[in-house]
Amino acid sequence: xxxxxxxxxxxxxxxxxxxELKLLHELDNFNVFRSADHLLIVSGxxxxxxxxxxxxxxxxxxxxxxxxxxxxxxANDKFQIGExxxxxxxxxxxxxxxxxxxxxxxxxxxEGILGTSLTPVIxxxxxxxxxxxxxxSFFEAASKFQSSSRIHTLKVISDNLVFENIKKEVIEKxxxxxxxxxxxxxxxxxxxxxxxKHDLSDDEIDSLxxxxxxxxxxxSQKNSMFQKALGFKVRGGNVESISKIKxxxxxxxxxDRNELFREVEKLFSS
Length: 270
Hints:
five-stranded mixed beta barrel; 10 strands; alpha/beta; 8 helices; Rossmann fold
């Protein structure tokens, strides 16, 4: 069972029509739609609504195998309105928690860092490419029920940080123009999970472990490095190229370690 989550009905409409989903009248807490293979929930705006919705539906349907958060987002002016993007890093801008989606397939979508905010963002923030109000909460809630390799976020750019109420008809048009492309991507992700196994080799694991020990990465950084390395390998990258990353000094402090880890993120996101 595939779960699609959107904050607004206008974001969900194209998928309801594409998959011929029917409203579940017995679930009155949220608007939930279903077919034989798909669930879709409209949570309402914000982190709290998203977390409650994902927990509620995951408890009701423990057979959910993949989670997809799909909707609109703002972006800096490097991105065009209507462009489909996928985050390789999600930052909760209020708590500073960070999540790393596993990009398992090579795609033509642009990648970047997504910041989740409590309120609409109208001024660009350093090192953030896209902005929304749900993704970090979605990822954190879904990870309680499924592995990170089965949790995905896709966004369509709706504005370049201009705070104004976007009409629902505009949102429907933006998402609708990308629904076939998104549906194909979701199908490919699910088929990949079922039919293919791409594990790290013993030599690759040794290289990553040695790097982690040598540079005293935190447990969180180490786990993130392994996740991103697997996605990098699937996209055709050479995991052992991590050996090219060198620390500025032997006895690195926390600041140096974090700077080094950003180099690892940059390598494995390429």
